[in-house]
Amino acid sequence: MNEVQDSKPSGLDRCAGGQSLAPAQAHSLALEIRALKQRLNAVILAHNYQVPEIQDVADYVGDSLGLSQQAAATPADVIVFCGVHFMAETAKILNPNKIVVLPDKDAGCSLEESCPPDQLAALQRTNPNFYTVTYINCSAAVKALSDVICTSGNAVKIVEASPKEKDLLFVPDENLGAWVMEQTNRPMTLWKGNCYAHVEFRRDSLLRMRQRYPDAKVVVHPESLREVRDLGDAVCSTEKMISYCKTSPARQFIIVTESGIVHRLRKECPGKEFLCAPVFDAMRLPTDNCRCCECKYMKMNTLEKVRDCMKHLAPRIELPDDIRQRARLPIERMLEISARP
Ligand code: 13P
Ligand code: SF4
């Protein structure tokens, strides 16, 4: 099989973003959810990786930064957070008196798992001059140990604003951290964590795809490996991917991130074509089947679970007061730096 045929994923431009429920079922659940939303004075916040039917009932769909900004500003009494656990925790840290529910309490994140707070505290003790810049993909206990939080959308700005006399410790994503170092020329000690989903993208399969679609722009999330980031026409957060594709004169894009984002891209960029870059399958071999990147944690949430968490106001995010209070400061610092011109 030659290189180009090998790279030909079946129906690549059609996969991802498809409805996983029958339309009638999705419609009736959406009606129930809208009624519950009104009764509870709730707001539904959804990440760009959520399944299409959840995105379609949400009040706001965005990246981690946009979701934190929405959570900080909402007048709602109940926040229904359709994303992963650390995102809902961030909303709770910012809204201690509101009810925050998450459709599936087990929707975690490999980055959060990679950084236990006791291990971070031990590393911090090795250098009293460390200034800890922490990617938002971490637990509340890790946030509580941090000087400032960042997201992929503002990491460069946050690092540029960090005190010059300090030694920067960047946790927990070594790939995002390495990309930020390239952008800022600021040396940093990097925690050895990664996103299990984004590190599955590979340079050789992306090169084959570029060969097959030579006019397509390649848009890469910075959690990817450097060999993949280096092939990107743009390297950015999921929200910036949407604005990049909207404003670019190109008609075709290869999207190197979790495939849920394609739903918004297709809705908001009519007439443009979005191709999901393939990942390796479980056997680490290229296959001819759909090989879209899916985050198993993000995909734990379903429309039924959204309805159920609103009906029962559970699973609910609760945090010990001391952790919540200590974690709030570095998040507020991030929001303040982000708002600077
Ligand atoms: P964004 O903030 O770019 O949406 O990224 C969140 C995330 O978890 C990426 O895997
Ligand atoms: Fe975490 Fe990766 Fe899933 Fe994002 S895609 S929530 S970084 S495991």
Bound molecules: 1,3-dihydroxyacetonephosphate, iron/sulfur cluster
Structural Rg:
20 Å
Low-confidence stretches: 1-14
Spatial shape: globular
Question: Could you state the order of secondary-structure elements as H and E?
Answer: HHEHEHEHEHHEHEHEHEHEHEHEHEHH
Calculate the terminal CA-CA distance, rounded to whole Å. Answer: 52 Å
Number of helices: 16
Instruction: Please state the average pLDDT score.
Output: 92
The CATH superfamily of the largest domain is NadA-like
Strand portion, in percent?
A: 5-15%
Spatial strand sequence of the major β-sheet: 2-1-3-4
Based on the structure given, which CATH architecture of the largest domain is correct? 3-Layer(aba) Sandwich
Number of strands: 12
Derived structural class: alpha/beta
* Number of domains as seen in the coordinates: 3
Largest sheet: 4 strands, parallel
As a percent range, the share of helical residues equals: 40-55%
CATH topology of the largest domain: Rossmann fold
User: For the record, what CATH class of the largest domain applies?
Assistant: Alpha Beta
